[in-house]
Amino acid sequence: MKTKCTRARGNHGGLVVAAFVVCNQLLVAAPQGPAPLIPEGGGPPGPFPNTSVSAVNVIAKGSSVFDGRVEVPGFDGQGPITWSLNRYNRGDFALRLAPGDPVAALGNLGQGFIDFADNSPGVAASQAWRPSQSFGVVIPTARQNGPIDWGDGEGPFYPTVAISWASSGPSYNMADGSFGTGGLDINTGRAGTHSSSPEANFSFSATWFPFDQGWLGGDVAGPTSAGQSGWTSADAHASGLSAGLVKWIEYPAGSMTYGGLAELRLPGVNALEDGMLFATSSDGASDVNIVGVAPKNDGSAWIVTIREDSATDAETLAAAGQSEFQFVYIPFSAQRLIGGHILGADGSKRKAVGDFTITRTGVGTYEMTVPGKTGADGTLLLQVADFEPDISPQLASRAFLSYEYKNGKFVIQSRKTTSDTNAELFDSNFYVAWVDFKEPMVLPDGPRMRSLGPVAVTEEGVVAKESGVAANLDSPEALVVFIDSVNFRAEYDPITGAIATYAVMGRFYNPANLQPTSDPFIIAGNPYGTISRCDVKYNPVSKQYVVVATARAYSSYGTDVPLVALVNSQSVANGGPLLAKVWVHHPESEESYDDIAVAVSSRNGNFLLVAERKATGEGESTGGCLYDKDGNRLTPFFTRLDLLQSVGDEDDPDVIYHDGLKAFVYISNTDNSNGSTGTLSNRIVGSIVDDAPNAQGQLVVRVEQPLSDGLPAGRTEGHPAAIANPFNGELIVAYDAGNDTAQGDLSFFNLGTPPDYVFSPARPEVPYLNGASGNPFNHRHPQLAADPEHGVIVVGFNAAGSAVGLPEAYAFCLLGPDGQPLPSQLGAPYFLADSPGGLGGSVNYHNIKYSPASKSFLAVYSSSPGITYLASLAITSSHLPPVALPALSVTIQGDNVIISWPATATGLALQSTTTLSPPAWQDSGLAPVMEGDRFKVTVTVSGSSKFFRLISR
User: Is there a contact between 792 and 785 (Cβ–Cβ < 8 Å)?
Assistant: First the structure.
C-alpha cells in the first residue's frame, strides 16, 4: 500500500487512541465483507479474511486404533490471518479463517484421539469465516514424510492431500454472511489401495490466496462430455480469467473421452519463465486425487494431469467426474517470494527468487533451508512440475510431494505409488514456495477487481445479433438491448403494427447482481427486412434511454433508414409502458443508411444521431442530426460531418458527449475507398459538434482533424472509439489496425478551445494490444469506459482467432488515470468471460459502460451462435493521484475521546482496529456529526487501546 499517513494521539487513563488518515494513492484496500447473520447462541467472526495470504500448520496424529478418530494437539504456527478447526475426524478437517476470538477458538483442539463434530453455534472455532472458492484458493501440503506408521495395524503409509468444498462444519458464508455448513475441508489420504479406508491422519498445512489481493486462480470443474471447460460455479475464479483458458484434452487420443488431462494457459504468461502454478484436487472424495503440472517446453501452457493416488501407472487418469481441481498462479515478480522451480535430478534451481538453499541428498529427497526460519515460522507450498518420461501424449508426472521440518532443515520427499501399500522415492522437478506467517508473499502493485457473470440475457430460441448496454446514472438500473433475428416472441412493429421479422428488444437489469428486473420487451421492429447496428445511451435529463438501429429496406423507397426510440426507465414508467416513443429517422431518404451511433448531452438532454449514408458518386458519407430530449428534431435530417475528405467512404462513425466542452465529439476512420483522392487513408479523424443548433436551426459542425499519428506508416487505423478522460480532460481514442488484427493503439489529444477547437497531441501513442497474426489473438472494435471513483479506464474488445490456444472471449485491459496501461501479472489482456462459438466481430456486437450505482463496468456481447451475455467488472483498488491529507485531532472530553477532521474532507470512512500487529481494520460504525467546520465522532472509552483511520472510498 503506497500511502502517506498523519497521526494524532491521545492518552486517557492508560487508553491509547491513535487516529490515522490514509490517502488513496494506489490504495489496495480489500472490499468489505457481508454483515454476519449471528445465530442464537453464536458469536461474530473476526475481520473479513481477504486482506492477505495466510497459512496454518496443523498437527494431526493417529493412534494404536484405526477408526474415524484423530488427535489434533494444536497448530504449529499460523498467520497473519488466524485460523480455526471446528470439525475434524480421520481424513477430514474443516479449517476456518479469522475466528472472532482466536484464543477461544483453539479450545476444541488438544482433546485427545476423538471425532469432533459439535456443530452448535456457540463453538468459538465455528464463529469464523469458511474459505470459499468464490473468494480465493486453498492449497494444502502434506507436512509429514512417509512412511508413517501409527501402530494401528494398518502398516506404514505415504501421505497425500487435497481439498473439498462440501464440509459438514458450520461457519459464516463469505458471500452473504449466513451461518451454516459447507465450505472447506482438507482431505488427508494415503497412496495406494487400502481396503479398510483410503483416509489417513498426518500433519499438514493449508495456504489461503484471496482473489481480492489480486491472486489469479480458480476452481475448475471437470469437463463436459464434449470436453467443454467451466468453473465449479460462475464466480469460482479470479477476475480476469475465463474458463476457456483451461482446455481439456481428449484422452486417449481419438476416444472422444475427456477427463484427467488438460492444458492451462494464462494470457501472455511464459510458463517456464514468468511464474509457478500450484494445484490441488478439489474433487472432495475420500480417495485423494493427485494433480501434477508441467510447463510445456515452449512455455505456452501447463499440462495438468489428474490421477487417483492409488494409480501405479502413468496412463490411468481420473475420469471427468473426478477431475475438479483448484489452481493459483504465483509470479516470480511477487514481493517477498522465496522459492522457485527445482530440477529433481540434481536439486539445482532452474529459476528461483529469494534467499534459500536446496540440496539433493538422495533419490527423491531434498533438504531446503530458509535463513532465520523454522518449521513454526511458516510453511512450504510444494507442486510437482515435471513430465512423466517416455509417454505420448505428454502427461505431467504422477509423483507427489511431502515435507517435514527436521534438524533445522525442510526435508522434501518426491514419491510415486508403486503398489497398494508402497510409494517409492523418485526424482522429479518441482515448484517450492515459502509462506511466512508474519510477512507472506504479496503481489506487485496493480489493479484489484471483482467480476460477475456472464449471464444469458436472451431466452432460449432467440438468435441474437448486435447488442448494447446503457447504465442509468441516477438509480441501480441498466438497459440491455439486442437484435432478435428470428423475432422469437412474435412481436409487432410498434410503428406499422405489422408482425416483425427482426426486432430490437430490451431488458432491464440490476447492475449490482446482474439479475433481470423485467422480461424482454419490444423497442422497434422491421416487417420488411433485417435490423442492424444498434446503439443505446442514457439521457440524464429526461431519465429515459435513447435507442437507435438501422432497419433494412424499411422506407417507402426500399432504403435502409434509422429507427429511433425513447425507452422509459422503470422509475419513470412506474408500472406503465416502457416504450415511450419510436419513429423513423429520415423516412423519405432515397439513399440507404448503415453504421449508426448516438450520444446525449448531459447539459440539455439533446441527442446527436450520427450515421453513414450512401452518397451517389462519392461512395459513403457521414452525417448528423440533433434531437431534443423529447425526440423533436432540431436540425435537418442529414448534415454532412465528413468535410475533410468528402469523396470516398467514411467508416465506423462514433460519437460521444464531452462534458468538459459541453459539446459532442464525432470520430470516424477515413476508409478512403470508392475513388477517394484524399491524402488520409484509413486514418482516425474527428470534429466537435455543438449540442444545440444555431439561430438558423442548423447543426454546428467543423472540419475533422486527425486523431492519430499515422504510425507505423501504412498500417490501417480502424474502428475507433473515444472517451473524454475524466481525470485530465484529454480525449483518448482507441483504434485497431483493421479487421481481425492483433494490434490496437491509444492516442491522446487536447481538443483546444471554442470556437475553433484546434486538436493537438497530448502525449505519445501507446498500444493496448501489441501482438501479431493471432498471437495472443485477433480483435476489432475496441470500446472505452471510465470508473471515476477508482481512477481506472477500461478498454474492452473481442478476442478471436487465437493462434496460441486462447479461447474466444470478451477481453479487456485497464488504464490508469493518465490513460497509460496499468501493470498486470499477465503479458496480454485479461479475459472477462468466454463466448462459446465465437464473438461477433462486426460493429455493435459488444459494448461496455460504467454503472455509478453498482460501481462496476457492464459488458454486453453477442456470441456467434446468437446468445447475448451480460457480465460485470468492479475495480476495488484506487489508482487516483495523491490527495492532500486533512489534519486530524484527538481530544479528551470527560470519559470520552473526540476525533475530528475538516468537513471539507469528504468521501472518507472511519475504520478501527484494536491491534496493529497485524491490523484488523473494520468500519467503526460511528457516524460523524458536523460541528462548525469539522466532522466529529465520540469514542466511548473501553478496552486497553484502539486505533482509528480515515480511508478514502
Answer: no
